[in-house]
Amino acid sequence: MKKYTNFKKNNEFSREINNLIPGGAHTYSKGDDQFPFLSPKGIKRGKGVYIWDIDDNKYLDWTMGLTSVCLGHAYEKVINAVKKQLDYGVNFQRPADIELTFAKLLKEVFPKYDMFKFAKNGSTVTTAAVKLSRAYTLREKVAVCKDQPFFSYDDWFIGSTKCDFGIPKSTKELTVKFSYNDIESVKQMFKENEGEIACLILEAVKFDQPKDNFLIELQNECKKNGTVFILDEMITGFRYALGGAQEYFGLEPDLSTFGKAVGNGFSVAFLAGKKDIMKLGGIEEGLKKVFLISTTHGAETHGLAAAIEVINELKDENIIEKNWEKGKYITTNANKIIEDLGLTKYIEIIGYPIFPAVIFKDYNLNVSMEFRTLFMQEMITRGVLFQGVFTIAHEHNYDDINLTLKVFKESCEVYLKAINNKSTEGLLIGKATKPVFREIN
């Protein structure tokens, strides 16, 4: 397959944007250090599941806006709903009627929750959940899953990562950790911090599948210890099921946080919870006031219009079930390619079919950023934007998937050369990608 080699305008774009914007992007996951040298540095436009870069190279997109686009780029029904709402205005001094419309729709999707609070990004609502939990329990400590990479850019979480520069020591001491699929680590954490943990937050699943009834056992431990159970559904929400991973796994969190897919790329996030906790963020007379979320742009009407259209489209078109089937097709055929080339020790597909990821190992069977970068380079230069995860959208069709599998095979063949050579030298152009969470750039 023909490979892209012209990134001249992309590279100039990168130089300019990094001089004007710290990190060259507004989330570190979009930075140059997260992609091979031979890859797009900037995007001009997107339509459906295709995007075009600064040099007009066209890519089949499996990243889908950091998982935020669940239908397709510039999806017509969503765009039309937004355009219609724009004619009515986007921000007012009092709540817009569409805020109530959206809240009622969420109540239909999540009947066990009583109240909802809107925002523009995930970190805002996860931090709001932590704040509510501290007020509700009169405790200070937060428990986070150490095997999951991100919950918020705020101090309570970032202070627990390698990127803790600038975070007060006193703040870091208030975050404790447990291991996924290890209920004994959860019990030990509660024992060591008895009566101190306000809340526990985790994703129901990242890629490792829950074992031995772990999620239910964890939920029970939270109840037993009087700790608020927060489920982060930024990625799993509106993907595993319409009601999120909690519907799929049969969970009943006290609070849940959502974002990304619900807006199909528009900035929409929300906190959902039970009234006895959520009402603390209200203005009920006589109660101590929790300054929960107070943002001018938190309920901009066009974002809510997008979210309403997304939810209705997911329901009406049975999209989530269809995406599960696409994922099964991808994983089955990709695994066959890996097996046929004798790469099963080096390339492994993990996770559920709705959101499969790929682990890349070197010739010593160590997980390798260098070998991963080589694979990304080969996919991207062949016109498939791939970062190690298949973010399946409604507009991905089976022609797109078969094209992807063809490119996947060609990339595996190059990968096999590197394994046999015990080196990526002569194959990988430029440096390997780096972890987002690191102490030194």
UniProtKB/TrEMBL annotation:
Question: Can you name this protein?
Answer: Glutamate-1-semialdehyde 2,1-aminomutase
Write down the required cofactor(s).
pyridoxal 5'-phosphate
Q: Name one Pfam family in it.
A: Aminotran_3
Residues annotated as signal peptide: none
The organism that produces this protein has a lineage beginning with:
Bacteria, Bacillati, Bacillota, Clostridia, Helicovermis
MF terms from GO for this chain are: pyridoxal phosphate binding; transaminase activity
The reply on keyword RNA-binding is: no
| Homology family | Belongs to the class-III pyridoxal-phosphate-dependent aminotransferase family.
Q: Which organism is it from?
A: Helicovermis profundi
Q: Which UniProt keywords apply?
A: Pyridoxal phosphate
